[in-house]
Amino acid sequence: VISSSVSFVFVSNLILGLLLASFFGLATNESSSLNWVDYHGGTWDGEGDIRESRAWWATMISQYIVLFAAIDGLAIYPLVAISLGEIMMSSMYEDRTHEMEENWKVRTLFRLLASVPQAIGSIFLSDLGVIAKYAGIFTLLSYSVCPCLLNIFGR
Questions:
Q1: Dihedral sign, CA of 147, 141, 77, 69?
Q2: What pTM was estimated for this model as a whole?
Q3: Of the candidates 79, 76, 90, 86, which has an alpha carbon nearest to the alpha carbon of residue 108?
Q4: pLDDT tens-digit readout, 65-105
Q5: Who's near 29: CB < 8 A, 6+ residues apart?
């Protein structure tokens, strides 16, 4: 099941990447949603600014696609921070984790330790392309190294 899921995700991302690259060409942005900023839905007559002369519904579609990634990231960030904080707390307290989860100060401290560094880092590094490259490296490492480590330490 896992190998077929990973294969499906790989193939679908490959197809999506090839489609975006073939449609947008060399002007493809590193964040694919930014390619839709100048979407006009065939309503632009070729004169003037695209954003001023396109239909209202084309503007709505463009803004939805561009803003969706940011809104999605904001919605997921607390979930990731809470989960990471719980993992950090359980690695620190091991058998006493359930006892420490009841202490709101300890729980809040670990959640802040999991969430604040990324927020501070985003102040200094706002280029989405660079962030995606670093996140991709760590994602590849976690997909390839973590299952092996879990297998070794789970014995």
A1: negative
A2: 0.57
A3: 86
A4: 889 988 888 888 888 888 888 888 888 888 888 888 888 89
A5: 35
The helices-and-strands tally (H runs, E runs) of the chain is: 6, 0
For residue 27, what are the contacts with CB-CB under 8 A and spacing of at least 6?
35
36 with 27: CB under 8 angstroms?
A: no
Q: Do the Cβ atoms of 68 and 39 come closer than 8 Å?
A: no
**Radius of gyration of the chain from its Cα atoms, rounded to whole angstroms:** 21
The CA distance from 68 to 72, in Å, is 6
pLDDT tens digits for range 2-56:
788 889 999 998 998 888 788 878 877 777 788 888 888 878 777 777 777 888 8
